[in-house]
## 1
Amino acid sequence: MAEPILKWAGGKRQLLDELYARFPSAFGRYHEPFVGGGAVFFDLEPARATVNDANPRLVNFYEQVRDRPDELIARLTSLDDPQSDPDPDLPHAEETARDREVDSYYYQQRARFNRRPYEGEFDPLEEAALLLYLNRTCYNGLYRENADGGFNVPIGRYADPDWVRRDRIRRASDLLADAEIRNADFAYVLDVAEPGDLVYFDPPYEPMSATANFNEYSASGFDREDQRRLLDVAGELDEAGVWVVLSNSGVMYDAYAEAGFRVDREDATRAINSDADGRDAVDEIVATNVPPAERREAGQRELPDF
């Protein structure tokens, strides 16, 4: 079985059973317009799929995993412990582009990652390796970008971090070989989904409160107008005979219920929180147009195709 390679905000490992209980017993092609860490995609292992994300660095990562897994593993193996001294043969061994002191290998690689789109020839393999390295060695595995698109998470504290992830990369590469990877707006799915296909939407959540606003895992963010557009897209897919399953925060319950979707509340523990004691269950919804009689059986792990 393939497994997620990255730790990603909003991951759905805790909701898999609840999501699968609302999937149709059979469907054509699978589409995931907000793939993120890919917890559902990798666990489901669909035979035919499109996966998409608005974050171009994440999309490049999956492309490199699919196309160059052995080269990616070799590049990751060459990286050093995050607490080590900076490599004097690499850029930013002493200070970042903003003249901040670099005191460890981690912060050197973070500075390189943030300057890669602007300095020299772009190397997509190095970009992918640095993304995974930082994800596995940063504080709490959190991916966060500032308004300029710069990765700004500090170093984590790990006794023996594993940033190579060779087995997961190889299994994911095999699965992604049969998937179409996109870097587009989520509405692309209106052009590719056919009647009988399944679309699973896992957007950045609408905040539960004014302070619960961790939905900006990329600099572009996802605002209320995007939430309205997503609701419209889900409605168009429903009218076109496409199966839809969607997760979001509890504040979106009424909007999807009023649009005619079957909506249930679920509790899920957030895996990413600055305070480990604060990883409490949060109110989420799962909305779907799949009637109960059309859903897969409880505990079913493989979905038959048309």
Note: Confidence is low (pLDDT under 50) at residues 210-219, 271-280, 298-306.
## 2
Amino acid sequence: MEANGSAQRMREKSRVVTLREVAEAAGVSTSTVSRVLDDRVPPSRSATAERVRAVADQLGYRRNTFASSLRRGQTATIGVLVPRLSDTVMALMFEAISRAATRLGYFTVVATTGDDPTDEGEAARTLLARNVDGLIIASSLREDPLPRELREQGVPHALVLRTDGISPSSIGDDEAGGYLATRHLIDLGHTDIAVLSGPLFTSTATGRLAGARRALQEAGITVNPDRLIETTFGIESGEEAGRRLFNSSTPPTAVFAANDNLALGVIAAAHQRSLSVGGDIALVGYNDIPLAHLLPVPLTSVRTPFDQIAATALDLMLEPALVDNPIRRALPTLIPRRSSGTHRTPVGSPH
């Protein structure tokens, strides 16, 4: 009898406690439990984290990602689609996704797609054929068919940086960012401001342009259509648009470039015309890539919180049933530097 009781206790002790059991007992999502119990990152001291750890100890939970993945019939692998890794922003986004996935015990595989929906769909099918557990997509266009197909097929997925307005999406608040950038230039005294929007087939470009328009309209500044230039997100496109603006008989005094690569192109165009950035021309970029603060004239930029966006995207992909709002927006931050110059006294104003 005593031997039978001992065997029963051993079986109970050896039973594997799952993340979901801990999550249900603690009243949080499984992804929250996974982050809290990951000993590869500094422990959180929040009340929620303390409760999760206490519940896990009480239930006898022991982390075993590989075994857990096998029991779920999953591979603990996430596919990531980006337009190109030569784009600094997309490389930063992928690295942030990879860091967030590692904390949750997942491995990431990346595929590049350009801006071609056909190539994007083929890359998605290839990754799914390799049994990834879901897809994180940074290549989505506004009218992209892939998210709709994934929804119809019940494939776990989330969009990052860009959104189609329906699928689970973790993005920056692009309208707020465009507003901050343009409002900063207005507050410095500029009224003749050009906006390089990026490609308007992306939600990022349309959002940033909408924010810029709102700031101009609030300030009572008439929006000159010639000052709103649709571009790609590449350096060459920024240089081309900059030459077009600076070769004009009445060049603008300020430029908001909807990403930092565009801003680098504008700097090149200004140099070709012997115009000083931060002096003759005020310039604001977007995303605050690592190079921005290292330039000879450090670039004012709107910082995108890539790590926050990545972590939210994984939550949306892994726990879609627990998400009330499928589109999450992270607030950007304006980082003022020398490229936007100092306060400018408008022509005709008293000194």
Note: The chain has three domains: 2-63, 69-171+306-330, 174-305+335-340.
## 3
Amino acid sequence: MKKLVLTGAAGRLGSYLREPLTQMCDELVSTDIVDDIGKLYPGETYMKGDLASLDDMLKVLECADMVVHMGAYADEGPFEKLLGPNFIGAYNIWEAAYRQGLRRVVYGSSIHAVGMHPKTDFIGVDAPHRPDTFYGLAKCFAEDLGSMYWDKRGLESVHMRILSCAQVNNARALGSWLSYDDLIQLVQRSIETPVTGFRVVYGVSNNDRVPVDNAKASFLGYRPKDNAEQFAEQVLADTPPMDNQDPGNMCHGGPFASVELGNSGVASMNIVNDKKET
């Protein structure tokens, strides 16, 4: 592949994708809204760009084969705060990809698109949208956008509904964990699969307690290797009894399912910022 683009390259997940993506193409263009992302890998260039600007995205995606779209405001917040990067940004990526003749968009979607489904339901990739927040609603919008652009314009997309890609330090993560190695594999398979059309796949590792079903996306060849059960004894020992009336404990969206609309869901999640440094 000649040229790949990675949005959200300055973010935590983007930091783990940059180097592997350089090995899949002649040129990786990493982009974000920061002035620079430090040292670049061989074959990588950086272009500053605002997702809310169609002109910026047209420039970033020029002559690209595919885009891995991980850029977004990565938390719940007021609708107005998410409108530019998450809603308009998604439209700009798909529209620019179509105008520039890209073959596929690989999108960092989220479990929050279906976050209000009960965890006792073993949901598949065809579960109806049931967003838990404005953030989840933006993921629904992008998934429907991808479906429409495939049906109407022939632009393929793979929507990776990531559950929780962070260190395992809570009981929910025993089922929802996606390791960085498995994230990389999932992105690679989403790029390498010859034909995808429009497809949803859950971004989750091979956990004993996995709460979702990827069977209908098996053709992508994604076979996660890591298992959060290795952390179970310590995590459960540190976990007090849970309130079974709290949607944060009972729904797939976790804390996002219990916060008021517009309030941060990340604030109570104790996410460790172990961003990879170049």
Note: Residues 79-99 form the longest helix (21 residues).
